[in-house]
Amino acid sequence: MIGESVAERRKKVFVGELPDDFLRLTLPSSSGASADVDGRPIVVQFAQPQPLSFVPPNTRGRIQVTIMEANLVKNYGLVRMDPYCRVRVGNSTFETPTKISAGRQPVWNRVVHAYLPNNVESIYVQIFDEKAFSQDECVAWAHVMLPCGIFANETIEDWFPLSGQQGEGQEGMIHLSFSFHPLQNPAVQEPQPRFQPVVIKDEDIKELKEMFATVDEEVIRSILEQHHGDKNGACNALLEMMS
């Protein structure tokens, strides 16, 4: 107020010990909070947040892939080799960290969790040498069929051959572990359409083989089957695998 003296303004200031709850914010507990109205306690309930989860359609369950280590036959680095591994499950791709100067025997111990689509029976594995001043080089790859035992609640661990410049299955081995967990309530999944069996033509395999000479014909056939005979889709998948 204009003309009010300093002494008069000080009289309006609260002087003395502050209460214990001064400027203290009390948060309600998850189970609820109580208050008194006219001497009667009232309990206020707070809703618990519900976790949200989304399961893609056409999914048979969750697969766990552990990329343990690899044993390569050759070091392709000029000075050193910094390998990392890329794994494709269906349309999802995962990578391990890069192991600096690991050379021919990188150890990753990377665990990958992914939804496994229906009719997918294999995964694709690629090992790259990370480059500082050029594009990363793919030094080995493998088309690994999923062990049947994982669908009977088994955990399967094994070494699988790698392909590369040394030849089919001659680039070394990769150590993998698999386990599978079916959906808890498969009844909620939409019914799956029934596809007619796809006949893969030998000329289609031959045509893709000419484009991807280092890829085994059985791998090409498998990719064509997954794409229901679509050569363009199979070609894109092969390009992604080789990139």
Structural key phrases:
243 residues; alpha+beta; 4-stranded antiparallel β-sheet; 4 helices; 16% helix; 36% strand
Which stretches are poorly predicted, pLDDT < 50 over at least 5 residues? none
Helix/strand/pairing class, anyone?
alpha+beta
What is the total tally of β strands? 10
The pLDDT mean sits at 80
> Share of helix among residues?
10-25%
N→C terminal distance = 76 Å
Order of helices and strands: HEEEEEEEEEEHHH
Question: Secondary structure elements and their pairing?
Answer:
Elements (H helix, E strand, L loop, with lengths): L5 H6 L21 E5 L2 E5 L14 E14 L10 E7 L2 E4 L11 E11 L4 E8 L7 E9 L10 E9 L2 E16 L19 H10 L5 H10 L4 H12 L1
Antiparallel strand pairs: 1-2, 3-6, 3-10, 4-5, 4-7, 7-8, 9-10
Helix pairs in contact: 2-3, 3-4
Describe, in plain words, how this protein is organized in 3D.
The protein has 243 residues and is α+β, with helices and mostly antiparallel strands. Helices cover 16% and strands 36% of the residues. It contains four helices and ten strands; from the N terminus they run αββββββββββααα. The protein has helices at 6-11, 202-211, 217-226, 231-242, and strands spanning 33-37, 40-44, 59-72, 83-89, 92-95, 107-117, 122-129, 137-145, 156-164, 167-182. The strands form three sheets. The chain has a four-stranded antiparallel β-sheet, with no helix packed on it. Strands 5-4-7-8 form a four-stranded antiparallel β-sheet, with no helix packed on it. A two-stranded antiparallel ribbon has the order 1-2. Helix 2 crosses helix 3 (217-226) and helix 3 (217-226) crosses helix 4 (231-242). The longest helix is centred in the last third of the chain and has 12 residues, at 231-242. The chain is elongated. The mean pLDDT is 80. InterPro entries: C2_dom, C2_domain_sf, CUE, UBA-like_sf. This is Toll-interacting protein. GO terms for molecular function: ubiquitin binding; ubiquitin conjugating enzyme binding. It comes from Mesorhabditis spiculigera.
